[in-house]
Design a protein that fits this description.
heterodimer; A: about 375 residues; mainly beta; eleven-stranded mixed β-sheet; 27 strands; elongated; B: Rossmann fold; about 35% helix
Chain lengths: ~375, ~600
């Protein structure tokens, strides 16, 4: 068990990213292979079938279900408008006429001679899929969408909320250990992706939203504030569909935790460039991590991908402790004892001795409770 | 090819859990089959590895090192055994990568919908949603939901044989309209099992055969009075291997290593629980708490049945677990319910962050005693919620015509009442990392007592090192080996628990218990209401006689004595006079903390006061 845990996060100065941009239903693809695209370029569009409304014609007109077909004023499949009369029948020995109007704008879908029900389908809902990231179309998925390829710097976060967005990168704090406060934000950040330090509060997120900031990238966030932001306790970590007005990406975790130096440096290097950001996270069963993509000047050509941190722990490996009592502290592996050691809990597990970078003190930590960091 | 049982000298079995892959090595010696060692490694089904076999190889490598035997030949398992190298049989269970995620549907939610749910859960699946004509959703909402969920498999039921055809076809049409894609692998058709009204099969075929991998099996509810889940369960197991597992990362390779099909973990644990219940003629509840899901199994007598007929139920609580799902335990139970089990003040902001960090970094373990206590508090709530869900589903058939008198006519809930009767419960078995690896066995025992609140007289046991799944799959090919290892190395008897039903003022008389071990001196214990007592039990078995005070019941009636021979356990006899129906913790925080500390001391739960 010499393997350090890694959530599989990537921090790559240059890599070739491919993003599949797919419609929820079959539709039209608007781009060709090789076409240059920007984050807002529409690559495919379709129409989702509208909702279905039911009308009990037999009851409303007072006719036998078998006879409702004859009461329709337009054939099935015809477009109808809201409140338009769609069926009528004589009543009171022919002295009166009962009428039924359409409950929606749409089309007459079907009528049943068994139940006497009429279905009106509302108008289709148009859906467009954009390219999300600047690059070029590498592949067209006929009727479904396209694959956009981009040579970009990539930072994967550990957790995020909110959908896809993009904007120029703004480094708002002096360093990775400084907390992003409302005072760091200004009207000029409208439309930007703002990078902060170790923490952001709910109040600052609200201020960012008010100013029109598109995304915040910080080290940590409190779960209590996440609850405030979402309006509920997040149970299962499947996110990305929230409509919050601002996307939030955590690079390190929950609580106050300084952004890893390598992440901070990479983002700082690209300050001012347009970044595409997604908060979508799915921890399990097809892991999906939030990301910050910064397309590089020339998106064609080869690129090398940096693999995830991980692998064997050795004396000297730079690590971060990821559980109490030293959660978030950084240091180097000083010893890797082979034998099991008893913890405060009395559990006997594989451990390592870490020498903390800040004060050179040493502590014994379960090997399962560290993650490797570059540096 | 599976070797003949007599020729098997050694068995290697793995369980690929969502967080950890566990390997056990069993060898045949002079006294039969015994567990010789175990190893574990993080599961590697998720990114960045996306190959389950890497975690399996890492876990087996640990077994190799500990046993000093060569089991691997490069990146494959050496089989059959040659000299001291390799093993004669390798087998595996799996719940990694999300397990088997299913969507089920029936005509009426409470009838065929519920039967379909039981069939899927019984086969070890996670039920993502139950779709029925009366579920309150309109057709387009159902279509949208099917598209969103992307299940591994759909079980379509509905109607009794010879009954409604049109509405069953309607359900098939909804599935066809959704044209759902499978979760894993883009290039294969979604498996759909039709187990409904057989007269509707031609219409369902016409609708679904061209766009899904459709299998038609006998109706799971041929009549309102009868439920037959076997054919649907078998089809689920078969399709799980053929379609789902074959597309999960690395499983294709893993499947070639074993002559025995990979079994979903809950299916394997269920087999063992059923066998124990049958052998000991006991009502049994088993629980397996994992990182992502918690599975509960129960075998109870059929109420009103003249013979010893029993009914087996299994539920999988998809989002209640100790790592990936830990945050959902907090969301569903509420932070106050978790904190009620913690005997010290905790800052809520800090606790919430800790829980979320465990969710995003699921393989970490508690290092401090305080952290362990918090994790065990979360475990109590995960177990409690899973058991609630189990009780809600382990019910008699709804919609069944039963003979009723005039007073029942107005009571529409007469059928469909829960089959779980805690007074009848004879044995409660726990498995899963947080229970099996609890540093002290008493911790596992109290976690289970607090969560399940057994009533009357119940024996408790725990899986020693979390190997029930592997023994479950082994029992399908070598029952003798599985039984021997289960008895000798797996099942650890914790002890009996005496819990009178009733309530009184704290300190007033509650119950008197006499313990007479087969060898050694008998002892007598008078326990007052509100107290928890642990009596060490030496030897193998003993005679237990418990007499509740008037107003308290141990299952034989108020004030009536209960006598039974029970197994002694490693923790001892626990007399739980804290009350049942209701069991209540003090509302005042300092009184509650005081009580929790008193109970922890009574069971010598932790090395120091926390």
């Amino acid at each position: 068990m010499g393997h350090a845990y890694t959530p599989g996060l990537r921090v790559a100065p240059e890599t070739l990213v491919r993003r599949e941009r797919r419609l929820p239903l079959k539709g039209d693809v608007c781009v060709a292979v090789g076409a240059a695209v920007g984050p807002e370029s529409v690559v495919a569009r379709c129409e989702l079938p509208g909702n279905v409304q039911t009308v009990n014609l037999a009851a409303k007109l007072g006719v036998d279900p078998a006879a409702v077909g004859a009461t329709l004023l337009k054939p099935v499949g015809s477009p109808v408008a809201l409140e338009e009369t769609i069926a009528e029948a004589k009543a009171m020995f022919g002295l009166m006429r009962n009428r039924v109007t359409s409950p929606a704008n749409g089309t007459l879908e079907s009528v049943s001679s068994v139940t006497g029900q009429l279905l009106v389908r509302e108008r289709p809902i148009p859906v467009e899929v954009n390219a999300y990231v600047r690059g070029h179309v590498a592949e067209v998925l006929p009727g479904e969408g396209a694959v956009v390829e981009s040579r970009a710097a990539l930072v994967q976060g550990i957790f995020g909320v909110g959908g896809e967005t993009h904007g120029p990168l703004v480094i708002a704090t002096a360093g990775p250990g400084e907390t992003l406060a409302a005072s760091h934000l200004e009207p000029g950040h409208r439309g930007a992706v703002v990078v902060g330090g170790d923490h952001v509060s709910h109040a600052t997120v609200l201020r960012a939203r008010e100013l029109g900031v598109r995304a915040l990238v910080v080290g940590g966030f409190d779960d209590r504030d996440l609850r405030e932001l979402l309006g509920r306790d997040l149970g299962v970590a499947i996110t990305g569909q929230e409509e919050l007005g601002v996307t939030l990406v955590l690079t390190e975790g929950f609580g106050r935790i300084g952004m890893a130096a390598r992440t901070w440096e990479l983002l700082s290097q690209h300050a001012g460039k347009v970044a595409s950001v997604s908060g979508a996270t799915q921890i399990r069963a097809g892991v999906l991590r939030p990301e910050i993509l910064i397309p590089l000047a020339d998106d064609h050509g080869s690129a090398h991908a940096l693999e995830a941190e991980g692998g064997t722990l050795e004396v000297g490996t730079f690590v971060r402790v990821i559980r109490q009592p030293w959660f978030g502290r950084l240091g180097r592996v000083a010893e890797l004892p082979a034998e099991l050691a008893a913890l405060d809990t009395e559990a006997r597990v594989r451990v390592l001795v870490v020498e903390f970078a800040d004060d050179r003190t040493r502590a014994t930590v379960p090997r399962a409770n560290v993650e490797r960091l570059a540096g | 090819m599976i070797p003949a049982p007599d020729s098997i000298r050694s068995i290697l079995a793995t369980d690929c859990g969502s967080t950890t892959t566990k390997a056990i090595l069993i060898e045949r010696g002079d006294e039969g089959y015994r567990l010789v060692t175990r190893g574990e490694a993080p599961t590697t089904v998720e990114a960045p590895f996306e190959d389950v076999t890497r975690g399996v190889l890492n876990a087996v490598r640990e077994v190799e090192e500990l046993r000093g035997r060569k089991l691997l030949d490069g990146d494959t398992i050496l089989s059959p055994q040659r000299g001291d190298d390799g093993v004669d049989l390798y087998l595996s269970t799996s719940s990694a990568g999300g397990g088997l995620q299913m969507m089920v549907s029936g005509l009426v939610l409470q009838m065929t919908g519920e039967s379909a749910q039981r069939a899927a859960l019984g086969a070890g699946a996670i039920v993502m949603d139950v779709m029925a004509l009366n579920d309150g959703r309109r057709a387009h909402e159902k279509v949208r939901r099917l598209r969103q969920l992307r299940p591994d498999m759909i079980l379509l039921s509905g109607g009794t044989d010879g009954g409604d055809v049109k509405r069953v076809t309607e359900l098939a049409e909804i599935i066809a309209a959704a044209d759902p894609r499978a979760r894993l692998g883009a290039g294969y058709e979604l498996p759909v099992i039709f187990a409904g009204n057989q007269s509707a099969a031609p219409m369902v075929r016409a609708c679904l055969e061209s766009r899904t991998a459709l299998t038609v099996v006998p109706n799971l509810r041929p009549s309102l009075e009868r439920e037959q889940l076997g054919p649907a369960r078998d089809a689920i197991h078969e399709l799980f291997m053929e379609h789902v597992m074959a597309h999960a990362p690395g499983y294709k390779k893993l499947m070639t290593w074993s002559p025995v099909p990979i079994m979903p973990t809950p299916g394997a644990v269920g087999l063992i629980i059923e066998k124990v219940a049958k052998r000991d003629r006991l009502a049994v509840v088993g629980v397996d708490i994992g990182g992502a899901t918690t599975d509960v199994f129960s075998v109870f007598r059929v109420p009103g049945a003249a013979d010893d007929a029993t009914v087996f139920n299994r539920t999988v609580s998809a989002n209640l677990g100790m790592s990936y799902s830990v945050s959902n335990v907090m969301a569903e139970a509420g932070i106050a319910n978790i904190l009620r089990w913690v005997p010290f003040a905790v800052d809520e902001v800090e606790l919430r962050n800790r829980i979320k960090n465990k969710m995003i970094r699921p393989t970490t373990i508690p290092q401090t005693l305080e952290d362990l206590v918090i994790e065990q508090a979360i475990c109590r709530e995960a177990l409690r919620l899973s058991f609630e869900q189990h009780k809600a589903l382990a019910v008699g058939l709804k919609g069944k015509q039963t003979a009723r008198d005039i007073s029942d006519v107005l009571d529409q809930t007469a059928s469909g009442s829960s089959l779980v009767d805690l007074v009848d419960l004879g044995l409660l078995v726990g498995s899963g990392g947080v229970l099996s690896h609890a540093p002290r066995r008493a911790q596992a025992m109290l976690m289970m007592i607090d969560a399940f609140l057994p009533e009357g007289l119940t024996e408790l046991a725990v899986d020693s090192i979390f190997m029930t799944p592997q023994l479950g799959v082994l029992s399908t090919v070598h029952e003798a080996a599985a039984t021997q290892v289960f008895e000798r190395d797996c099942l650890v008897i914790l002890g009996p628990c005496v819990a009178p039903i009733g309530s009184a003022k704290p300190g007033s008389p509650c119950v008197t218990v006499e313990w007479a071990p087969e060898s050694g001196a008998a002892s007598r214990h008078v326990v007052a209401f509100g107290a928890l007592r642990c009596v060490p039990t030496a030897g193998e078995r003993g005679r237990l006689t418990a007499t509740p005070e008037r107003g308290f019941d141990l299952g034989a009636g108020k004030g009536k004595t209960v006598t039974r021979t029970v197994r002694a356990g490693v923790v001892g006899l626990v007399i739980d006079a804290r009350g049942r129906r209701p069991f209540a913790l003090p509302e005042d925080p300092s009184a509650r903390i005081g009580k929790l500390r008193e109970w922890n001391r009574a069971l010598d739960l932790y090395p120091r006061e926390v």
